[in-house]
Amino acid sequence: MGSLEEKVKHMAEYLDAEAISAALKIPVETVRDILDGKAQVLEVPGASKAPAVVQVNSARVAYRQRVIAVWRAKGGVGCTSVALGLAWLLKDLMRVLLVDCSFDVGCSDLSFVLDLPEYPHLKAFEYGGIAGAVINAEPNLDVLQAPRNRSEIDELSQDILTRAVTSARTTYDVIICDLPNAEGPPVQGVLENANTLLLVTGGEDGEKSRLLARLAGVNLKSKEVFLLCNRESEVNGPIAEVLSFREFAVPEDPELARGLRRGQVFSANGPFMRALAEVRDAMYESSATQKGGIFRRLFGR
After folding, report:
1. Taking the CA of residue 115 as centre, how many other CA atoms within 13 Å lie in the half-sphere pointing to its CB?
2. Residue 51 carries which DSSP code?
3. CA–CA separation, 277 vs 299, rounded Å?
4. In which domain of life is the source organism classified (predicted)?
5. Nearest 5°: phi and psi at 136?
6. Given its phi and psi angles, is residue 185 left (phi above 0), alpha (psi -120 to 50 degrees) or beta?
7. Cβ proximity of 30 and 58 under 8 Å
8. Cα distance between residue 27 and residue 15, in whole Å
9. Which run of H or of E encompasses 144?
10. Which range marks the domain in which residue 135 is found?
């Protein structure tokens, strides 16, 4: 009994759809579609030491499970806003985990905006697993935040992010990792396990050159890569000249910045979120359009 489909059908002899969903940690709608013969289930091999990616196509569900690494080569370009905004757009469609990978002392921007309590955080993964470490911020949106004090940060193992993300893949449809402006083992581990890379830049040529240099150490063979230029900067330059990425521009949104400083989550109607909706659609259109019309039903297009 190796495949997901076989497991679901065997368990259905003894359990209802809700119990199967809880046991296998997949959406209950997916269980019902498999049992009704309306779903196509594919298991795509994952990266080294990572579990297979489960892709489910049905009338209700059409997506490739994604681990999205949001990365930058300069602070202050809006990377955290992009990660949170993308999670906000996806939470009404699928189960989302947002991972705060910043190991700076103090309350992170993500924890501040979402008004999260200090505990639990990433360190709880070591003894409570993913379920004991996350905070439910919104329906279908959980957050795995970083510790805030130096002693707890220093106690984290170098591979804890890799292990946490790998574990979370059995529970969530999409995992969005807000990576810091840094390199090194924790960041590298997330990059290796991600199948989607969203690069955020302010558009300066020097900054994009640094980002390109960092990418030289990343295996991009099995990843989809998207380039997002914040503040409507030019999307051409060193990166676009060397590598062919899907490129998007985000216009300046003063209301967004003011709202985030006050700890307010943004409105879906602003220019920033409209631009992110284009990124979301581009990420998911390839699998959805294969089923004819599903993309429109999912995203209202």
Report:
1. 5
2. P
3. 9
4. Bacteria
5. -80, 110
6. alpha
7. yes
8. 15
9. strand 141-144
10. 64-299
Are the beta carbons of 255 and 227 closer than 8 angstroms?
A: no
Domain CATH number, residue 33 = 1.10.10
β-sheet bridge partners, residue 53: 44
Residues of the chain with pLDDT under 50: 59-62, 233-238, 287-301
Structure tokens at 289: 């359009």
- The residue behind tokens 């949170």 is 84
Q: What is the largest CA-CA distance in the chain?
A: 61
Report the C-alpha gap between 128 and 130 in whole angstroms. Answer: 7
In a 10 Å sphere around its CB, with 0-12 CB exposed, 13-18 middle and 19+ buried, how is residue 223 labelled?
Answer: middle
Total domain count for the chain?
2
Same domain, 137 and 166: yes
Q: 284 near 174, Cβ under 8 Å?
A: no
Same domain, 141 and 38: no
Task: Characterize the bridge pairing of strands 96-100 and 141-144.
Answer: parallel
For residue 76, what are the CA distances in angstroms to 29, 52, 82?
40, 35, 12
Q: Residue 46 has what pLDDT?
A: 56
Query: Alpha-carbon distance 113 to 263, whole Å?
Result: 4
Q: And the tokens for 240?
A: 């676009």
Please tell me the distance from the alpha carbon of residue 99 to that of residue 187, in angstroms, as a whole number: 12
Whether the CA torsion 16, 20, 22, 25 is positive or negative: it is: negative
Q: 25 and 137 in one domain? A: no
Q: Residue 270's pLDDT is what?
A: 79
Contacts of 18 (CB under 8 A, 6+ apart): 28
CATH number of domain containing 270: 3.40.50.300
